[in-house]
Design brief:
By secondary structure, this protein is α/β, with parallel strands linked by helices. It contains 17 helices and 11 strands.
């Protein structure tokens, strides 16, 4: 049966969902930003004395912190002192009407406030309550402080990243992002379950366990093969050629030969020596890995006389997987992102800022809701009124430093 051509776009999938988050830094804020982009109302509870400490990381985004701009668009900011009973009561009232609660406070802090998942879900059976921690709620590391770099080290990511001489951490907060995305998907799964059972329930995510999952390939390689993969910089431990090679104009082009057929094409169409395709020293991946230095020299010599555009064109014509080694300014101007119209502007206290559309695209539906980056306490008064507090009570809370 033909579909009508005048159908209205589907609404965003989380329209009507309310999220309350007592959050800071990256892991919880990045998770709840995904929910906000998909239509949820996200109420961000911040400290009165400076708010989420990520607000102070830097001033790179026209005076705002780049981490905060990245992780907090589309949220309402409520600045409260949760150690004061009035501030805590306001949050509890918000949670009573919410669908989801997310927190990533230090271990034990949420429980002391009665905001841990077990306590909240017992009081509100339909609530989905997410606890994000560094190492989980039990075990010998439960009380250990957990920052992204520390968890990258504990999870072994640093051991497989870098050069043979120097291990390095990832250039993005990989442990935070991993935990955020599992928290995000955990909320979506719990919402589906609530739709069939009527019950929410706790969701627990730890940064260590999330990042350990991402270490799956080198972890299984080490556990079952006996040897961890070597650190190889931009090269690959078990594939050759697979690296970045300099071009005549100062650029760098990365290529990856995945099988021996591709090697034969590379030898003939790029290196210009078709006999290398059948040479026992290079004909198989195992032989090329064993002769990695000579293999890389052959590729480097061929690409080193071409500029980056010529090298890319020749590799593409030969059907060899390749990429430019771009910096972040080049990523911001990437032709693929421009062609797919992935850039938007979001409001902020300092004016419009460029931001990428989230990678989840839902064709036939409304575009992601990329709301403004909030100022600290921008929505405090409206939210306190919404939970039944009078003007006099709000004024007293402001006077006493309980609200900002």
């Amino acid at each position: 049966m033909e579909q009508p051509t005048d159908q209205q776009p589907l609404p965003l999938p989380l329209d009507g969902i309310t999220v309350v988050a007592v959050e800071q830094a990256v892991s919880a804020p990045f998770a709840t930003r995904q929910l906000a982009d998909l239509g949820a109302r996200v109420i961000k509870v911040e400290r009165v004395d400076g708010g989420d400490f990520a607000r102070g990381y830097d001033t790179a985004a026209r005076g705002l912190a780049s981490h905060f701009v990245w992780c907090n668009r589309g949220k309402e900011s409520l600045a409260l002192d949760l150690k004061d009973p009035r501030g805590l009561e306001a949050v509890r009232r918000l949670i009573a009407d919410a669908d989801v609660f997310v927190q990533n406070l230090a271990h034990g802090a949420a429980a002391r406030l009665g905001l841990d998942a077990a306590t909240l879900c017992a009081a509100h059976p339909r609530l989905i309550a997410v606890d994000i921690s560094g190492y989980g709620s039990s075990g010998p590391y439960a009380d250990k402080r957990a920052y992204d770099m520390l968890v990258q080290c504990e999870a072994g990511l640093v051991s497989v990243t870098g050069t043979p001489e120097q291990p390095v951490k990832a250039g993005v907060p990989a442990a935070d992002i991993a935990a955020a995305m599992y928290a995000f998907s955990g909320v979506l799964a719990a919402l589906v379950r609530r739709g069939t059972t009527g019950r929410g329930g706790p969701v627990e995510v730890s940064m260590l366990e999330a990042l350990a999952e991402w270490l799956g390939h080198p972890l299984h390689h080490a556990m079952h093969g006996g040897e961890p993969p070597a650190r190889t910089g931009l090269a690959h431990a078990v594939i050759a050629p697979y690296d970045a090679y300099a071009t005549a104009d100062g650029g760098r082009v990365l290529l990856s030969v995945q099988n021996d057929r591709e090697w034969r094409r590379l030898a003939e169409q790029v290196i210009g020596r078709p006999e290398l395709g059948m040479d026992p020293a290079y004909a198989t991946n195992a032989s090329r890995v064993a002769n990695r230095e000579k293999t890389d020299e052959l590729v480097a010599r061929a690409l080193g006389v071409l500029d980056a555009d010529e090298a890319m064109a020749r590799l593409e014509k030969a059907g060899i997987a390749c990429a430019r080694l771009r910096d972040l300014h080049e990523l911001a101007g990437h032709p693929q992102l421009a062609a797919r119209e992935r850039w938007r502007e979001v409001g902020s206290p300092v004016g419009p800022l460029k931001a990428l559309l989230p990678p989840i695209t839902l064709p036939g539906g409304d575009e992601a809701r990329m709301g403004d980056v909030p100022a600290l306490g921008q929505h405090t008064e409206a939210l306190l009124r919404a939970v039944g507090m009078t003007d006099d009570e709000i004024a007293a809370m402001r006077r006493d430093g309980v609200a900002a």
